[in-house]
Amino acid sequence: MKLRFFFFTLIFLASFPVSAIETCSRVAIINYQEVLIDSNSSDKGEGLRYHLEKDPVAKMHLDTYQKNSRVMWPTAIVGTAGTGLLLYGFFTSDPEDRRIFLISGSATILVNFLIARTLEVSNESNLTKAIDEYNKRNLPKIFFNPDETQGQFNFSTSKIGLAQQWTF
């Protein structure tokens, strides 16, 4: 029983950092001034909209980036289902059922995380394209240097996101 309580507490406490806003400190340099890329609105990249909307191609990439950055309900539902399977596995008394539910819940959460993180990493290219398109035809230039190798592995043309990092 103590082991179940320990794992339940560990999972409960580990879920708190996930709800943090991970993009609160991304900045771009425009005219030697730092501009927050992700303002306090719910849309990521909104801090650059004033500049990027001057160029129709850049605005199109920014709109695509923001559309793909919204909460994806299927991943939220699958993550919740995986957590439910995992928790049910902790509290069931049959050892065979426990093993099945713990393994299936863990696998569901892991696969869901990998898919969601990979989609997020691949979506960042839309923001980079928007800034590049703007810089081709407009002044002042936007200087933005994302750490593209952070938390991802590249396989030829495919990117797989494996880590998440929050900075403030």
Explain what you see:
The protein has 5 helices and 5 strands; from the N terminus they run αββααααβββ. With 168 residues, the chain is mostly helical. It has one domain (34-161). Strands 2-1-3 form a 3-stranded antiparallel β-sheet. Mean pLDDT is 81; it is low at 18-23.
Please provide the count of β strands. 5
Total helices: the number is 5
Rg, Cα atoms, Å: 20 Å
Element order: H for helix, E for strand: HEEHHHHEEE
Which strand order do you get reading across the main beta sheet? 2-1-3
Percent of residues in helical segments? Answer: 55-70%
Low-confidence stretches: 18-23
The largest sheet is:
3 strands, antiparallel
Summarize model confidence as the mean pLDDT.
81
Termini gap? 38 Å
Count of the domains? 1
Which secondary-structure class do the elements indicate? mainly alpha
Q: Which band does the percent of strand residues land in?
A: 5-15%
* Dominant shape: elongated
Descriptors:
168 residues; mainly alpha; 3-stranded antiparallel sheet; two-stranded antiparallel ribbon; 5 helices; 5 strands
Short description:
It contains five helices and five strands, in the order H-E-E-H-H-H-H-E-E-E. With 168 residues, it is mainly alpha-helical.
SSE layout:
Elements: H1 2-14, E1 27-30, E2 33-36, H2 49-52, H3 56-69, H4 73-91, H5 95-137, E3 142-143, E4 152-155, E5 158-161
Antiparallel strand pairs: 1-2, 1-3, 4-5
Helix pairs in contact: 3-5, 4-5
